[in-house]
Amino acid sequence: MIWLPVDYDAAAAAPFRRPFHTFLIKVASLCNLNCSYCYVYQTPDKSWKNKPKVLSTETATRIADRIHEHVIRHGLKDVTIVFHGGEPLLAGVETLRALAALLTARVPCPIRWGLQTNGTLLDNTAVQFFRDYGFRIGLSLDGTRAHNDRHRVDHNGKSSYDDTLRAIKLLTSSADYERVFGGVLVVIDVEHRPEDILQTLSDLHIRSANLLLPDAHYEAPPPLASDDTPVYGRWLCDCFDVWMRAFGHIEIPYFEQIIALMLGGTSTAEEIGARSVDLIVVETDGGIEAVDTLKVVGRQATALGMNVMSHTFDDALDHPAIYSRMSGDTSLCSVCRRCAELEHCRGGYVPHRYSHANGFVNPSVYCGDLRLLFSHIKRSLFTS
Amino acid sequence: MKTDSQDTIQPEIAIASAASASTPSLHARLADHPILQRALRRVKESQEQDTHMAHHTRHTSHSTHSKGVW
């Protein structure tokens, strides 16, 4: 058992407890790609093998009813619903359209729609559906063909690059494409040069590209990590410099979130600087999870023993896996709470803090990298 | 409906605002940098509406830009 109430003081966290606004719904449990770093399929949690391949109408109806009661109980003005996978387009556009219609009919407030896809199945029918409902779409692309092909291949080892580029061109083919196309995710590979990645994204007219540190923790350290050298920190600093110098037209939310925090703003990202994460994940079998990326730790981290068939979202608020992420600083280790960078970091991303010995009560496995990045950004932007 | 001018933070106002909130001061040469403009917009939005108890948290594996309703 990882999430022990004794590790997380519910009373101390109470001031930061709040209802969920963001519901990440797994509409498909499988994927047509086999990316080397995937937190769903390349990690110890193999529960995807036993889940329904596509979210059923029955489970979706229950999810919608649970969101309905949550909205009513807490008087929410709006919610965010993100269709996620696996690869969500494997569910088929007509199924997604039916799910969106079902949720729209039952959720008694405006919905901000999102969907994250690898793009390989994207077509005009899908884009029209996104436009009809106002979906904001995220794609995954790591940079040049060489970058992408190193990790993002199908189950036969075939490159996904051309299909993803075709999807990007389709999404960017209209003048108002930013209404639909939110941007891309780039998983950091420190063997790839930041300027090559950013130049590729710029050439593709991509306006926003978020950076993801590889999912890792103390028992499964990041690729090429070294005790002596903060290789990810150095890469991030190099990327920051190149970005500031020549690619400022591309939004990099990870960096901009840190800058905003340094200017006194609030984090809206779960992976950096977050005081209160109002995100909840529902799997295709109705299982409730704190966040799906905890699969990198194992089933013991994701399985909360809750399902929309038998539990409300308010029940989930009482689980330490949830309220520990709505706790300001109180769930962080003493090293983090004493750290000068606490306001900018807040322990980084929760999966990155895991160790067998202490659960999630550790600094991030990227702690040295993050401290290097914070000091670099401060030196670059602010007067002393 | 927002206008362009409403979407653009005057750097000197933003810097003054940031300074008054006991936050560090930006290098003046960077004040009109597009990156800083967007970051300052995030700060302004968080001061006006996205307090730590009101915002919608973005999932790390859903990429989306900040402009608009997100």
Description:
The complex is a heterodimer of chains A (384) and B (70). Chain A has 384 residues and is α/β, with parallel strands linked by helices. Chain A contains 15 helices and 8 strands. In chain A, helix 2 (57-74) packs parallel to helix 3. The longest helix of chain A is centred in the N-terminal third of the chain and has 18 residues, at 57-74. Chain B has 70 residues and is mostly helical. In chain B, 41% of the residues lie in helices and 0% in strands. Chain B contains 3 helices and no strands. The longest helix of chain B is centred in the middle third of the chain and has 15 residues, at 34-48. Chain B is extended and about 35 Å long.
Q: Helix proportion of residues of chain B, in percent?
A: 40-55%
Q: Which strands sit side by side, in order, in the main sheet of chain A?
A: 6-5-4-3-2-1-7-8
Provide the gyration radius of chain B in Å. Answer: 13 Å
Give the helices and strands of chain A as they follow along the chain.
HEHEHEHEHHEHEHHEEHHHHHH
Count of helical stretches of chain A: 15
- Average pLDDT across residues of chain A? 95
Instruction: Give the amount of beta strand of chain B, in percent.
Output: under 5%
- Give the low-pLDDT segments of chain B: 1-21
Strand content of chain A: 5-15%
Quaternary structure annotation = heterodimer
Overall shape of chain B: it is extended
Outline the biggest β-sheet of chain B.
none
| Largest sheet report of chain A | 8 strands, mixed
Question: What gap, in angstroms, lies between the N and C termini of chain B?
Answer: 16 Å
Low-confidence stretches of chain A: none
Distance between the termini of chain A: 46 Å
SS summary, helix count of chain B: 3
Category from helices, strands and their pairing of chain A: alpha/beta
